[in-house]
Write a structure and sequence with these properties.
four-stranded antiparallel sheet, alpha+beta, five-stranded antiparallel sheet, about 325 residues
Length: about 325
């Protein structure tokens, strides 16, 4: 059967590896169980976790035994690694990038964090002597256009390190063709930094997801192209309408709230500035009036002083000049 009733949809698949008794592991390399993401079998490798090493390194390897990796085999993947902070989600460290696996080069990895930080009991990365490592891959799959799907996984927002990702751009374009293509880079960058944007829409229909990302695109495009001095009442009202619409689609938008609220506050800030300018102008006018009054008062004082001196002189003359 063909894909007449199906469309490509961008999704995010994730595997979590819980390493128990972490402090008791004495090995230069540690291997996870095998798991399947994007239809391929993988395995996480970390090294070194013991000895004189300073940093934790995490690798994702395809299972050679299962795939057999024939000559010429290639697989390009958008990979996201994470070391979970089990005390504070916002402190979870996430790094993502694009890598092309091949029969000759089938291992990608990244240096993550200092081992002393990982093993610090106050850091939140080791709880009950358990370390949690996650790996995720962005994938596109054919799904029924209007059918809702349960989410593949749930992750928290944490920035990645790579925004220059041609494969991911193409995946996004192929999944959401009705979104204006000039604005796709903004959406791709946002999704790479906040994978939960994709995850939150996995249970939605393709049409709903397209509407959602279109709404997100409108807000991002507005913020990316407006400057502060343009934020008049009309622009603020427009942004408020776009923001209210975007919030109805179920995205986690805490990362974006600050920028929207700052833009919306510009109008009030500019009004306050205008009011201060008016106040300063009024004070200057009042100061000028006071200067005039002071000059008039000094003139009156000088004249009164002269009259007083004249009167005193006349009074003295009357005392010393008898009739």
């Amino acid at each position: 059967m063909g894909n007449n009733n199906k469309r490509l949809k961008l999704m995010f698949e994730k595997y979590t590896w819980n390493i128990t008794n972490f402090s008791k592991v004495f090995s230069f390399k540690l291997f996870s169980d095998k798991f399947i993401l994007d239809g391929h079998t993988w395995q996480i490798v970390i090294d070194p976790i013991w000895g004189m090493a300073e940093y934790l390194h995490i690798f994702l390897e395809p299972d050679e035994g299962c795939a057999n990796l024939p000559e010429g085999w290639k697989k390009t993947a958008n990979v996201s690694f994470a070391v979970t902070n089990q005390v504070n989600d916002k402190m979870t460290i996430r790094k993502g990038f694009e890598f092309e696996y091949s029969a000759n080069d089938n291992c990608c990895g990244v240096s993550f964090l200092p081992l002393h930080e990982l093993k610090d009991p106050c850091s939140g990365f080791l709880v009950n002597d358990t370390c949690m490592i996650e790996v995720g891959i962005f994938v596109t799959k054919y799904v029924d256009e209007n059918k809702e799907y349960p989410p593949v996984c749930k992750i928290d927002d944490n920035p990645t390190n790579d925004n220059d990702n041609p494969l991911f751009h193409e995946m996004f374009r192929s999944s959401y063709k009705k979104i204006e293509q000039n604005f796709v880079p903004l959406l791709v960058e946002a999704c790479l930094q906040h994978p939960s944007l994709v995850v939150s829409q996995e249970k939605r229909s393709c049409r709903f997801t397209e509407w959602a990302f279109t709404a997100l695109d409108r807000v991002l495009h507005f913020l990316n192209n407006k400057i502060l001095k343009d934020m008049d009442e009309e622009a603020c009202n427009h942004l408020q309408i776009l923001w209210d619409e975007l919030k109805t689609f179920g995205f986690v938008l805490t990362w974006l709230e600050f920028y929207v609220e700052s833009a919306l506050d510009v109008k009030k800030y500019m009004e306050d500035v205008d009011e201060m300018i008016k106040n300063v102008f009024a004070l200057k006018i009042e100061a000028e009036k006071l200067k005039v009054r002071m000059i008039e008062t000094e003139t009156e004082l000088e004249m009164s002083s002269k009259e007083l001196m004249k009167a005193e002189k006349i009074g003295v003359n009357k005392i010393w000049m008898p009739n």
